[in-house]
C-alpha cells in the first residue's frame, strides 16, 4: 500500500514539473521480468506462505535481491538507476547481516501499529541484537495514516532513485534539466 501511494504521488508530480507522462511509454527496461519475479516471490513469502520453512524463506528472500540486481545492472545506463541500486544494496547488507530478515526497530513497528511476527516469516521484523540496525527499518509511517509501515534508509534512496529516474525519463525539470537517456522501442530487439 505504501509503495502504491508513493508511486501515485510520483506520477502526479511529473506534470507539475513540466514532464510528460507519455514519454514514459518510450522507456524500455531490459530484463524487467527478473524484477517482477523478485517482487512476486517476496509477496508469496510474506503474504501467501509466511508459515513455511524459515531457512528456505530467508534464502529465497536474499535470492530476490540477486534477481532485482541483475535487472538493475542491465539498466544502469538509465539516469538515476544507480541510486535505486545503492538503496537496494544498503537493504541487502542489512538483511544479509541479520540472517535474511530486515531488522526493524521496536519503536518504528509500534509507531506504524505493526506487531512483531512470531513464528512467521516477515521480510522486516524486530531482531534482537540486530547487526547494522541503523540500516534497518527504523522509520515509520504512523498507524492511522494511509500506508502505515516501517522503512529504511535504503528504501528512501530507492524511492528517490525511482522518483528522479521517472522525472528524467518524462523530461521533467526535476530529472536533470531535460537531459535523459531513453531506450526507445525502435531499438533493435537483440539489444534488449
In short:
It contains six helices and four strands. It has helices at 2-16, 32-48, 54-74, 81-96, 106-112, 153-169; strands spanning 102-104, 124-126, 139-141, 149-151.
Structure notes:
The structure is a single chain. The protein has 192 residues and is mainly alpha-helical. It has one domain. The chain contains 6 helices and 4 strands; from the N terminus they run H-H-H-H-E-H-E-E-E-H. The strands form 2 sheets. Strands 1-2 form a two-stranded parallel ribbon. Strand 1, helix 5 and strand 2 (124-126) form a beta-alpha-beta unit. Helix 4 (81-96) packs antiparallel against helix 6. The radius of gyration is 18 Å and the shape is globular. The two termini are 31 Å apart.
Task: Report mean pLDDT, rounded to a whole number.
Answer: 87
Radius of gyration: 18 Å
Contiguous runs where pLDDT drops below 50 for at least 5 residues? 177-182, 184-192
User: What sort of overall outline do the alpha carbons produce when their principal axes are compared?
Assistant: globular
Structural category:
mainly alpha
* Quaternary organisation of the protein chains: single chain
Major sheet: size, sense and barrel closure? 2 strands, parallel
Number of helices: 6
Strand order of the largest sheet: 1-2
Count of DSSP strands? 4
Domain count: the total is 1
Query: What gap, in angstroms, lies between the N and C termini?
Result: 31 Å
Beta-strand content bin: 5-15%
Element string (H = helix, E = strand):
HHHHEHEEEH
Amino acid at each position: 500500500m505504501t509503495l502504491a501511494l508513493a508511486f501515485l504521488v510520483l506520477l502526479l508530480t511529473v506534470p507539475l514539473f513540466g514532464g510528460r507522462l507519455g514519454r514514459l511509454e518510450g522507456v524500455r527496461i531490459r530484463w524487467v521480468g527478473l524484477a517482477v519475479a523478485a517482487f512476486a516471490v517476496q509477496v508469496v513469502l510474506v503474504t501467501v506462505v509466511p508459515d513455511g520453512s524459515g531457512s528456505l524463506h530467508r534464502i529465497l528472500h536474499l535470492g530476490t535481491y540477486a534477481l532485482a540486481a541483475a535487472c538493475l545492472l542491465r539498466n544502469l545506463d538509465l539516469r538515476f538507476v544507480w541510486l535505486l541500486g545503492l538503496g537496494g544494496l544498503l537493504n541487502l547488507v542489512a538483511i544479509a547481516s541479520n540472517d535474511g530478515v530486515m531488522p526493524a526497530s521496536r519503536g518504528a513497528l509500534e509507531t506504524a501499529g505493526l506487531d512483531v511476527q512470531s513464528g512467521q516469516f516477515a521480510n522486516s521484523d524486530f531482531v534482537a541484537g540486530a547487526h547494522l540496525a541503523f540500516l534497518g527499518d527504523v522509520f515509520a509511517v504512523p498507524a492511522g495514516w494511509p500506508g502505515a509501515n516501517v522503512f529504511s534508509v535504503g528504501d528512501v534512496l530507492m524511492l528517490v532513485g525511482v522518483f528522479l529516474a521517472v522525472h528524467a525519463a518524462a523530461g521533467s525539470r526535476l530529472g536533470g534539466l531535460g537531459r535523459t537517456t531513453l531506450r526507445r522501442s525502435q531499438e533493435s530487439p537483440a539489444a534488449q
